[in-house]
Amino acid sequence: MSLKRAYKKNQFIISPVLLILSAVGLVIGLFGTVLSGSAPGVLGEIENTLGNWSYWLLLIGGLFTFIFAFVIVDLYRKLSEFNDLYETTSKSKFIKNIARIETLALKLGPKFEDKVIEKEEDYNLDR
Fold first, then answer.
1. How confident is the model at residue 127 (pLDDT cuts 50, 70, 90)?
2. Is 0.70 surpassed by the pTM of this model?
3. How far is CA 11 from CA 8, 19, 38, 113, 119, in A?
4. Residue-range definition of the domain harbouring residue 105
5. How far apart are the C-alpha atoms of 120 and 63, rounded to whole Å?
């Protein structure tokens, strides 16, 4: 299984975990640079251990926090649109929107691709 396929299959778990990790890095970087000296407990020890690497942690943590927040918002926007188009009870509306539904299913992962195939079979559509 390729890395891209594995990510697509588990993106609803991987993206939030990476967002949390990058946010933790951002907070540690903040306490190591901007809020230096006011870090509570464990963060103060981490700040002392990191030294000048706190600036890099602040930069990378901030960048990845922004990226993964965007990824999660985009995922849930696509999921909402997919559900709106997919849940129709009208065969004609489904056929009218099939191109967009398939595009969204490809972006959301294999589970959604299987749902589209199943619905096409229910409506007796040829692929």
1. low
2. yes
3. 5, 12, 36, 14, 23
4. 3-121
5. 41
